[in-house]
Automatic annotation (TrEMBL):
Keyword Cytoplasm carried by entry: no
PANTHER family: ALDEHYDE DEHYDROGENASE (PTHR42991:SF1)
UniProt keyword annotations, A-Z: Oxidoreductase
Domain of life: Bacteria
Designated name of the protein: Aldehyde dehydrogenase
Protein family (similarity comment): Belongs to the aldehyde dehydrogenase family.
InterPro entries in alphabetical order: Ald_DH/histidinol_DH (IPR016161), Ald_DH_C (IPR016163), Ald_DH_N (IPR016162), Aldehyde_DH_dom (IPR015590), ALDH-related_metabolic_enz (IPR051020)
Residues in Aldehyde dehydrogenase domain copies: 17-474
Cited SUPFAM superfamilies: ALDH-like
Taxonomic source organism: Brevibacillus reuszeri
Length: 481
């Protein structure tokens, strides 16, 4: 049985902890028990936070580099000192097991510490104005300045670290930021706000606004004072935001349908270990999750047999158990959606090798072969614990099939041949290629994002800081004697 925990929370509005008469319930997807409440913010709350952020952005921009660094490091230290509490909250409100949640907490701490380090590297460059005839008496440089107020909309699958990936760089860059966490997982974001509050972040710089998207979503994306929107979520929602937002800077990570290629010379044990983990981490609710595997003819049968055997060993159960590998999906409705996609594929001719069963919000780790190309599960992001394995004759065919979807976040290839590795690097239409690793590999310092329907811009702290600042050119015209 899960630990019964109930948390009645306030939201963090422009540096103040406030409650509201209207509340939202937060449920544990494992047994649908209510674990807490949060305020259901109104459009008025958003307008208030934005007005306060107008002052907050000036306070943030005026913070010296050493103070920004100190605040970010103190927030990281607070989380480290309370890491088990943070991990437990993640495990309770999301799909993650306690071991997966602990890893997310470690990554969040790293994200904030890297943010602190990157503050000191927010440098510009001198410009050789005398490269232009007639400008011999001009000297100057450019530096980067904060963009102003940022609206961040975050998903449920990494409810702490993906929020930190927006808040850490925003504060490092000297901006004010308003965060709207996913309604299913607001508690982790509020704990991040607590860490910054304890770290001494001045009021008005940060708000974490909990509420229903229908009530507060439009205000967070259309207000003219919002200069940038940082969104992580689905493609359809991202497109809607783009249409509504107006003239604003955009950073969007919109998911994927990630491919992995396994060549006949691959280390199969490595490929299987990496790809099983990559497919079923966080119940497959992971934008980098392995969804399609292309195995070369010569090793296809052996790969499939060993992959299925390893998948059947995956332990599904209580999220707080140290023995559990995979917990439930975020809701029973999401599990039913995945169930319907798998059923569609099977009805159209796919072969189900294992899994395919749902119990409430739980959906078993599932492996398919012979999946027709016109199935949803072939073309779209399943965002669940399902992987399809395809047979390919050669690398060119694998690359063609890997690219034949409207997404392009990351891909993996397993091979011992450097020429094949570099061919994949050059021809895969994605934002990142992992050699001898699955698509599900990331460190928090690397540039992260994709092409096509996978998004716009890059996260990863120093790269997010670039997105959250603008260059200002300074030129001195000298009186030459």
């Amino acid at each position: 049985m899960m630990t019964k925990t109930f948390m009645k929370n306030k939201m963090f509005l422009a540096g103040q902890w406030v409650s509201r008469e209207n509340e939202m319930n937060v449920y544990n997807p494992q047994d649908n028990s209510m674990i807490g409440t949060v305020p259901a913010a109104s459009e008025h709350d958003v307008q208030f936070a934005i007005e306060e952020a107008k002052s907050g952005q000036m306070i943030a921009a005026s913070l010296p580099v050493h103070e920004r660094m100190a605040i970010l490091n103190r927030a990281a230290n607070w989380i480290y000192e309370h890491k088990e509490q943070y991990a437990t909250v993640i495990a309770l409100e999301s799909s993650k097991t306690i071991r997966e949640a602990r890893k997310e907490v470690r990554r969040c701490i790293e994200t904030l510490r890297i943010s602190a380090e990157e503050v000191r590297r927010m440098n510009g460059e001198t410009i050789s104005f005398d490269q232009m005839p007639g400008s011999e008496n001009r000297v100057g440089y450019y530096y980067r300045f904060p963009i102003g107020i940022i609206s961040a909309i975050t998903p449920f699958n990494d409810p702490l670290n993906l929020v930190a990936h927006k808040v850490g760089p925003a504060i490092a860059a000297g901006n004010a930021i308003l965060v709207k966490p996913a309604p299913a997982t607001p508690l982790s974001a509020l704990l991040l706000a607590e860490a910054f509050d304890k770290a001494g972040l001045p009021p008005k710089i940060l708000s974490v606004i909990t509420g229903h998207t229908s009530d507060i979503g439009d205000a967070l994306i259309t207000h003219p004072a919002i200069r940038m929107i940082s969104f992580t979520g689905g493609l359809a929602t991202g497109e809607m935001i783009m249409k509504k937002a107006g003239l604003k800077k955009m950073s969007m990570e919109l998911g994927s349908n990630s491919p992995v290629i396994v060549m006949k010379d691959a280390d199969l044990e490595l490929a299987i270990d990496s790809s099983v983990s990559g497919a079923f981490w966080a119940a497959g609710q992971n934008c980098l999750g392995v969804q399609r595997i292309y195995a070369q003819n010569e090793i296809f049968e052996e790969f499939v047999e060993r992959f299925v055997k390893r998948t059947k060993q995956y332990r599904v159960g209580n999220k707080l158990s140290e023995e559990t590998d995979m917990g439930p999906m975020i809701s029973e409705n999401e599990a039913k959606r995945v169930e319907s996609w798998v059923n569609e594929a099977v009805q159209k001719g796919a072969t189900l090798l294992c899994g395919g069963k749902r119990t409430g919000a739980y959906y078993e780790p599932t492996v398919l072969i012979h999946v027709p190309s016109d199935c949803k599960i072939s073309k779209e992001e399943v965002f669940g614990p399902v992987v399809s394995i395809f047979k390919v004759s050669d690398l060119d065919t694998a690359i063609h099939e890997a690219n034949h979807v409207p997404f392009g976040l990351q891909a993996g290839i397993f091979t011992q041949d450097l020429d094949k590795a570099f061919q994949a690097i050059q021809k895969l239409d994605v934002g990142g290629v992992m050699i001898n690793d699955s698509s599900d590999y990331r460190i928090d310092a690397m540039p992260f994002g994709g092409v096509k329907g996978s998004g716009i811009g890059r996260e990863g702290i120093s790269f997010a800081i670039q997105e959250m600042t603008e260059p200002k050119v300074v030129c001195f015209k000298l009186s030459m004697q």
